[in-house]
Description:
alpha+beta, 2 domains, 6-stranded antiparallel beta sheet, 3-stranded antiparallel beta sheet, 9 strands, 47% helix, 21% strand
Amino acid sequence: MKYATLRKNLTRNNPYYQFMQSPKTSLIRLTIIAALLTGGILLLVPYIIGIAAGLSPAFWLRLPGFFPLVISAYILLFVIALPAAIICSVRRAPLGIAALGIIGMLLLFIFAVDSPVNPRILYTARFGVSENSILVIAPYRYEGTWVFDDPRTGLFREPFVGGVPEMIDLLVKDIPDAGNGFRLTFSAAEFPGYAMKIVWRRKQGAGNWYYSPEHDMEGWICPAMFKYFRTPPKELYIKADPK
Length: 243
C-alpha cells in the first residue's frame, strides 16, 4: 500500500512522466521518427549510391526535381524533427536527446562531405557563383573536342563549341599533354597574369558571342556560362596552366 502511494506521488510530481504519458507526446515522437527517417534517407541515399556506382554530384544535380527533393529533406530535418527533438530533450526524453545527436551527425555529414546535398554545391548549381570570383575548371579532350566537368554546377562533359575550341588551342599550345587536362582560370574581372581577354559582342540563341581583339578570334559561349554568371560579362579574362 505504501509502495503504491509512493509510486503515485512520484509519477504525479514527475514532469517527464507526465510528458511521456500525454497524448501529444505520441504524436511528437512519431513526428521525430518519421521526419528523421525520411529526411535522413533523402540526404544519405544519393551519396551512398553515388559512392557505390561511381556517380559524381553532377549526376544528381542534373536530375529534374532533385533540388526540391533536397529542400524537402532539409525541412523535414530542421523545421520539423529538430524543434520536436528539442521539446523532447528539454523534458529529458531519451528519444529527443538521441534525435539531436543524429541531427548533429547529419549536419556534419552535409557540410563536410563533397556530396550533392551539400548546401554550397547546391547553391552554386542553382544560382551560380560571385561574378567577381576567379574561377577554375579543368578542360580535357573528349571525342575530338574540348569538354569539362564541374560537380559544383552539375556540368559533365560540357563541350566548348563555335570557335571556342580554337581559342583554347591557342591558349594551350605551349602546355605539354594538355589534351589530358589543364587548368583554365577565368574571371569577369582582370587578374594578374591573364593570357587572353575576350569581350562581349552579341547574343545569339541561348548563348553569347565573344571576341578576342588581340587574336582576331570569335567564339560562342553556350548557356552553361549562366552557371557562373547571372548576366553575360562584358569582358572575360582567361589563363591556361598545366595541372
